[in-house]
Design brief:
Radius of gyration: 21 Å
Distance between the termini: 75 Å
Number of helices: 7
Shape: globular
Oligomer: single chain
Strand order of the largest sheet: 1-2-3-4-9-8-7-6
Helix content: 25-40%
Order of helices and strands: HHEEEEEEHEEEHHHH
Amino acid sequence: MPKKSAKTSKRTSTRKAAAAPSKNAATAESQLAEYRRKRDFSRTAEPAGGKAHAAKKLAFVIQKHAASHLHYDLRLELDGVMKSWAVPKGPSLDPTVKRLAMQVEDHPIEYNTFEGTIPKGEYGGGTVMLWDRGTYTYGGSDPTVDPVEGLRRGYQKGDFKFVLHGKRLQGSWVLVRTRRDDKGRAQWLLIKHRDEYAGEGSDVTAEHLTSVATRRTMEEIADGRSRVWHSNRTEGVDSGEEKRSAASTKSGNTQPALTSAYQRLMARRSR
């Protein structure tokens, strides 16, 4: 049987690489099925997803979410979606602390810039703050494995090691899958590894009470009536800051904006 030439092998490799985005797109579509099933997009302005393209570096985001119960949503990009966990007590820099992390449905990459209010009565209704964001990398110990493949294997195995490069959280972490609850949802533990970014006895969620994007408090975000999140209002807005309602401007009703500005000023003075 004749051997393949180097030139032929290179063309085959190129064709496989070119096909990868389509494969990932198809995977993302199937992984977002549950996210879409839970939402009525004729009633909520949350994104259906599928339009964002993966960047060269994998993204992560942590959103502080005051829904029925206050919690923190950890999201890690993998295969075209944001793998997501609800962490009731939020992350901890203390390696001796193991934080429960309940896996929830995958979210679209477009969700990464979301800061605002989901209307009451809708799924996940409440105030959402962009608490931290950045990129992340493979945190395993095998230097020969492809980094993304290493992340996939760790996730599938339930020993998901990664390194965060965020504004507030950095260093080595691990998500360890423990069991599934009576509804079949996977339960994990979020643990900080011992490194130069660890801090025993620290409380990073108490130290940072404002948005990493807009520096607003949860109260200020909730008070921003024109900042109820709509996917068609986030494009071209710097640092995730939503545009103010044009209707309010045309009516000449500037009192809500002045009140919000006053509250922001008083909040800054009280810090």
